[in-house]
């Protein structure tokens, strides 16, 4: 599971694994205490190379959590704002902005259309209602997963 947390990227880049991650007060599942459980390398847009994020383990229920910087959905390299603005630009102007590759944008658009049809039953061309509707139900609107990816909780 993923918990979103606020991160000072300058400090994270400077300190690396020594960054002072804030541990959530309790496990979101069972409300038990959490233990540090190592690091996981990830790549994020705007960060040169990989960064290491903390993992947490709940000894009571056995769940493992990753602390992910707020503004990035699980399994996505690009930030939430970049994805949304690219989709809005594509739906309004009919072309992708130069900062986003056509392949990545097409991936997001097809996933959004599919999610809107499957989960909301709306027409595939409805962008604003579909995007916001999926978010209001707790789904990542551009996820290609059949089971869907839930929006992580804030830690």
Task: Walk me through the structure.
With 155 residues, the protein is α/β, with parallel strands linked by helices. It folds into two domains: 2-69, no CATH class; 80-150, no CATH class. It is 32% helix and 17% strand. Strands 2-3-4-1-5 form a five-stranded mixed sheet, with no helix packed on it. A hairpin with an 8-residue loop joins β2 and β3. α3 (102-120) crosses α4. The longest helix is centred in the C-terminal third of the chain and has 19 residues, at 102-120. The protein is globular. It starts with a strand and ends with a strand. The relative contact order is 0.16.
Can you describe this structure in just a few lines?
This protein has 4 helices and 5 strands, in the order βαβββαααβ.
Number of strands: 5
**What order do the strands of the largest sheet run in, or round the barrel if closed?**
2-3-4-1-5
* Secondary-structure element order, N to C: EHEEEHHHE
Beta-strand percentage?
15-25%
Instruction: Classify the helix fraction into a percent range.
Output: 25-40%
- Please, how many helices? 4
Describe the sheet with the most strands.
5 strands, mixed
CA-atom Rg in angstroms: 17 Å
Class based on secondary structure composition and strand pairing? alpha/beta
| Average residue-wise pLDDT | 87
Whole-number count of domains: 2
- Give the overall silhouette: globular
Low-confidence stretches: none
Q: How far apart lie the N and C ends? A: 11 Å
């Amino acid at each position: 599971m993923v918990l979103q947390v606020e991160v000072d990227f300058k400090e994270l880049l400077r300190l690396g694994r020594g960054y002072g991650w804030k541990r959530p007060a309790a496990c979101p599942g069972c409300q038990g205490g959490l233990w540090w459980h190592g690091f996981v390398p990830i790549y994020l847009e705007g960060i040169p190379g990989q960064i290491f994020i903390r993992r947490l383990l709940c000894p009571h229920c056995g769940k493992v959590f990753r602390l992910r910087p707020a503004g990035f959905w699980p399994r996505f390299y690009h930030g939430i704002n970049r994805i949304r603005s690219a989709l809005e630009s594509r739906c309004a102007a009919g072309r992708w902005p130069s900062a986003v590759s056509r392949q990545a944008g097409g991936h997001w658009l097809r996933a959004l259309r599919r999610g809107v049809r499957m989960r909301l039953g709306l027409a595939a061309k409805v962008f604003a209602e579909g995007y916001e509707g999926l978010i209001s139900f707790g789904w990542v609107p551009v996820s290609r997963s059949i089971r869907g990816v839930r929006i992580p909780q804030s830690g």
